[in-house]
Amino acid sequence: MDDTALLKAWAQLQAFPDNLPVGDIEENYVTDYHHILHAIEALTGHALGEFLVPDSALQYQVRSWTSDPPRLIPNRFRSCARGIFLMKLDAAITFFNSVIASRKQIGF
Question: What is the pTM of this model?
Fold first, then answer.
């Protein structure tokens, strides 16, 4: 296992909660989060799929309303409800903290 790559991916994951924008989480943040999880998964061999944000949680939000003609203009980008994203992120961090703690207990 490449410990340096794992430490880098872990640092990136831990940096997420303090660096998210206010409100719903745009798809590019979800994509970055998924890339980090996939890297940790590849480096550790732990399946982390349950911590991914499901595609069904990403929705197009209404951006604006025009009056002539009356119609909704959807945003071009999808986003995820903040609560859903944070729940998945917190669970991934908690899981990985427990993996690290168990490895220390058995001498790794």
Answer: 0.81
